[in-house]
Amino acid sequence: MYIISACLVGVRCRYNGVITINEKLLKLVQAGKALAICPEQLAGLSTPRLPCEIIKNKNGILRVVNSQKEDLTKEFQLGAQKTLQIAQIVGANTAILKARSPSCGKGQIYSGNFNGELIAGDGFTTLLLQKNGIKVYTEEEF
Ligand code: SF4
């Protein structure tokens, strides 16, 4: 069983409310081989919402803030935890997640400066899934 970022298969959960559909991934969901999940919706965030990026505080601890500098770290942690719980319940060992997202990104995320700059890093959900033995790929790698 796969976990797939819900925004890749037609669910209107992206921060800007835009719907995107990756046909290959949608077929996995329709075949019952994948479950579509949005960590940020699971955490109670609304759509649309302000864009969020990961920043490091003075102690090197990762936080998530939106473009108004409001701290949403707890929500992102909650979304990651709920996603992990669901992945474990359904026995998923692989996740295909949206590239560059502060929740779902893998290998590369936005820098926290809200200027489009990219840096090395992983989203909160990706980090937690990987820590718990779930392989993560972006939709671009899959
Ligand atoms: Fe939800 Fe992840 Fe898609 Fe963001 S990238 S909208 S958290 S599924």
Brief rundown of the structure:
The chain has four helices and eight strands; from the N terminus they run E-H-E-H-E-E-H-E-E-E-H-E. It is α/β, with parallel strands linked by helices.
Describe the structure.
With about 140 residues, the chain is of the alpha/beta class. The longest helix has 18 residues, at about 75-90. Strand 3 and strand 4 (about 60-65) form a beta hairpin. A four-stranded parallel beta sheet has the order 2-1-5-8, with helices on both faces. Strands 3-4 form a two-stranded antiparallel ribbon. A two-stranded antiparallel ribbon has the order 6-7. The protein is globular and about 45 Å long. The protein has one domain (about 1-140). The protein has four helices and eight strands, in the order E-H-E-H-E-E-H-E-E-E-H-E. Bound molecules: iron/sulfur cluster. Iron/sulfur cluster binds near residues 14, 38, 98 and 104.
Number of domains: 1
* H/E topology pattern: EHEHEEHEEEHE
Main beta-sheet annotation: 4 strands, parallel
Class inferred from helices and paired strands: alpha/beta
CA distance, first residue to last residue: 15 Å
**Number of helices, where a helix is a run of at least 4 consecutive DSSP H or I residues:** 4
Q: Tell me the strand order in the biggest sheet.
A: 2-1-5-8
Annotation, overall tally of beta strands? 8
